[in-house]
């Protein structure tokens, strides 16, 4: 087995940062009325700026594949060119189309050479699944290097015109034309962007590298119902009725393709199962949590930060609070790309020194999955 190192990380955040006051002017107002959820959600999530692959007029500027391509291109120089790539792994929850795969479309834009590709689906853990596929490929000797990505273009799913037909349908039923909180909630949570990581079987000759010691992932879908979903509707019994079983008329009237989240289930399980899985991973690798120098938790909202810290302490996991590192307030919740954006900022911050231990922690509320990675600065 080979040692695996993160030797480069890059990011691409489209256009200019968008502050809280600008959001609704770009995304639009559903049924011409301001959102009732916006103020509450923004107060709790702590996000001050985010990025959209749209301009101030709401016109689309980048596809998801283009965001990913932009991030990957920043990895290249004279010593590692686009033709040096042996494996491309791309994770996202918001591909531009159902078929072909996201990685296939990114490879098409790169237009470099014949190589192996892999697409990881899912939600926030898709970026970590992409990274793990590359990690295992390089570690096994299947490839000498891998470029792994996490990317999202959520903004186009959050525009008001995606919900106006549903609002009209509610009005025709003499109901209140207010979109359910499970849909409006996420309009003020998500952001666009992409991150890319280069994995190699040798470390950098100059500067630091991050050795990937191990990666783990856990799913609780065997015991918990769906929490976050798109392309279907949740029924009273907790099952999901897929978009293929609705008429094309219902796709619009019910906003079937919007991203939805059951906040009651989220509140009940996301922290508990996260700490449970974290305890499992520390025990499996006989790892002392107090040895962590930098803890990078992907947080969908700062609302969960204190709850997570409290639960970690109650579990007896002594992760130093001084080790916490996040940039949620500055870049927003970019789903599968968030962990890439955090690690990129930390790697080039000038703070790291050889021997430092880094822990990556990514939850996914889809049906509650959790992914972890342990890195050592070398």
UniProtKB/TrEMBL annotation:
Span of domain Beta-ketoacyl-[acyl-carrier-protein] synthase III C-terminal: 284-361
Tagged with keyword Acyltransferase: yes
Molecular function terms from GO: acyltransferase activity
Origin superkingdom: Bacteria
CDD domains assigned to the protein according to its UniProt record, in alphabetical order: init_cond_enzymes
Record-level GO BP terms: secondary metabolite biosynthetic process
Record keywords: Acyltransferase, Transferase
InterPro entries: ACP_syn_III_C, Thiolase-like
Species in which this protein is naturally found: Flavivirga aquatica
Name assigned to this protein: Beta-ketoacyl-[acyl-carrier-protein] synthase III C-terminal domain-containing protein
């Amino acid at each position: 087995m080979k040692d695996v190192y993160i030797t480069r990380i890059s990011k691409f955040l489209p256009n200019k940062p968008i502050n809280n006051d600008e959001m609704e002017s770009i995304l639009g107002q559903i049924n011409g009325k301001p959102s009732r959820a916006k103020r509450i959600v923004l107060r709790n999530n702590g996000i001050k700026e985010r990025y959209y692959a749209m301009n101030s007029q709401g016109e689309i500027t980048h596809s998801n594949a283009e965001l990913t391509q932009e991030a990957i291109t920043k990895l290249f120089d004279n010593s590692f060119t686009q033709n040096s790539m042996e494996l491309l792994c791309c994770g996202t929850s918001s591909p531009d189309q159902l078929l072909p795969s996201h990685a296939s479309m990114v490879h098409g834009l790169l237009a470099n050479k014949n190589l192996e590709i892999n697409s990881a689906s899912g939600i926030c853990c898709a970026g970590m699944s992409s990274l793990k596929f590359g990690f295992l490929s390089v570690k096994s000797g299947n490839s000498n290097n891998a470029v792994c990505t996490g990317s999202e273009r959520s903004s186009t799913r959050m525009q008001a015109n995606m919900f106006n037909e549903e609002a009209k349908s509610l009005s025709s039923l003499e109901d209140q034309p207010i979109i359910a909180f499970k849909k409006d909630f996420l309009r003020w949570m998500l952001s666009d962007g992409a991150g890319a990581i280069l994995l190699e079987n040798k470390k950098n000759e100059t500067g630091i590298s991050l050795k990937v010691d191990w990666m783990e992932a856990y799913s609780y879908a065997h015991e918990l119902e769906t929490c976050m979903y798109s392309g279907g509707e949740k029924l009273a019994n907790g099952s999901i009725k897929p978009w293929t079983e609705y008429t094309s008329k219902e796709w619009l009237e019910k906003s079937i393709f919007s991203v939805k989240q059951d906040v009651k289930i989220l509140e009940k399980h996301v922290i508990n199962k996260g700490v449970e899985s974290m305890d499992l991973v520390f025990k499996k690798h006989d790892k002392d949590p107090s040895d962590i120098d930098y803890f990078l938790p992907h947080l969908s909202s700062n609302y969960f930060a204190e709850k997570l810290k409290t639960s970690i302490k109650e579990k007896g996991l002594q992760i130093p609070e001084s080790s916490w590192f996040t940039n949620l307030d500055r870049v927003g919740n970019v789903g599968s790309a968030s962990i890439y954006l955090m690690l990129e900022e930390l790697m080039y911050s000038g703070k790291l020194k050889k021997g430092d231990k880094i822990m990556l922690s990514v939850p996914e509320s889809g049906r509650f999955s959790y992914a972890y990675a342990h890195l050592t600065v070398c």
